[in-house]
Amino acid sequence: MDFAVEIGRWTYVAGWCGSSVSDIGATVGEQTCETRIERYSRPDVAAIYGEQIPKDAGFILSILRGDTEGEVILHWTRPDGGDQTGITLLDDLPDNFMQSLRPILERQVAGFETGSPDWIAHQLFLPPGEEEDIEIRGAVDGLFSHPDSGSFIHGWILGDEDVAIVLLEKDGTFHALQDMYRFPRPDLAANFDAGQAQVSRAGFVARLENRVSGPGMLLAMSGTATLTLTKTPKPRLLPAAPKAAAKILLGVETPLPDLVTRLSRVDWPILAPLIAQEQAGWAAEEVVGADLGPQPDSPEVSLIIPLYGRHDFVEHQLMEFSRDPYMREKAEVIYVIDDPAIKEAFIASCSELYQLYGFSFRWVWGGVNRGFSGANNLGASQARAPRLLFMNSDVFPQQVGWLEQMVTALDTHPALGVVVPRLLFANGGIQHCGMISKRLDSLGIWINHHPNLGLDPALDPRKELEAVELATGACMLVRREELERLGGWNTGYLIGDYEDSDLCFSYRAAGLDIGYLPTVSLVHLERQSFSQIGADSFKIRVMVANSLRHMNRWPQFLYA
Q1: Do residues 183 and 266 lie in contact, with contact meaning Cβ atoms separated by under 8 Å?
Q2: How do the domains of the chain map onto residue ranges?
Q3: Cα separation, 288 vs 354, whole angstroms
């Protein structure tokens, strides 16, 4: 047997027999299947085994398996009249599919060009029986491909849903549309006189595991017919940068309530390899930096502050830091530049900022944008203190001594792996006093919810240090040794979001609690850099994508 492939309700077996056989049939369980066999010559086999090989040694067997599950068992009769059986092994179309069909393609079939897509469709995928009158139409709106993450195709299909949709490239390579997601396309109703039932699942996005390298045809294959729906364009290269690729994929809008299903089937299997590939290149990037002013010999805590989108908040932070004796004597401040667009302007301003406030700090540049988690990890790798405070550039202290209080809380409570302060909006209302996971049924996801949002701090139910479920990463104190043992911040999320709750779950999985210290308050302007990533609809889809990954990583906490 050369290969066996299962498409929809049909199984197709190709191979050759070393002696004349007849009545090749098939069963699934106790069900006898309808079959058709086509015989052809195999000169390649005859050249090896000689004249004892029959002229029609090769065969293609089409088996109508129907809806029955189970192994397909072949039955045939030997020349001596005895029966023999064997079990076929079903698999996807092999990479050398066309090579397997080479002996068949040597034949000339009237009405078709040998080896053409139409010829292959009629010879291989036209089983016994009368052809059905299948009314099905479709079009490809976009086709993108990348050598490391496969391909992405979207468009529409109107008609019978009980068909297998296959992309056939010009060179004869078959691609099954994997994990197709269907969604409504009401715009097609008027143009094609289609009913509501048809347009309710007319749109599609799908993933192809392999790269598509050239134009071809989109085929609909049913049990008794193969139809050409449309020609496909030459694929465009899907960008290697995850953010750029996500804008293309998530730019094909589908209903938000079903977005989790689509992301699971189509988008994440494409984006995850791109994210991993991008991060693999970080190690080759040169890390550079500079000190502004004398640095503490043995800092007790290192502040790690990523900069993305804007850097004007740095001056306000340095002004507050310079007033705090503990920070002047015991703290190391590291600004991690994570945006090439602001790199030169920020570096040019550093000398002036140091001269203006007299507060020592460092800057670090890792060569590329690494995202929130990547920038935090880079800063941690450059830090010298045993404690690390991760801080957003739009977070500002309100009084001196705040950092020393947080360090004392962490040092005196070994059961805590994280300590965070209260964060306030600029108008004085509560922005963060701990987070919880909350189910958002309208989108089918879990979100990070901030209880008591906007309330007067006097109404905060917590008055002293207390363990909470989750905490924001906008201002988060940890021990270096524990963070390194946990592997640092997870960098597998798309652009931003959920990295802080992911880290909190890592600590909790290791048996360490998250501590909230309400006696320390800082102002947080919130998401001043995240607003740079794009339009609201795209941000919502990114949030859903990250929530899906978060749910898959931490089901023991979210579904307990």
Answers
A1: no
A2: 3-124, 136-280, 300-558
A3: 19
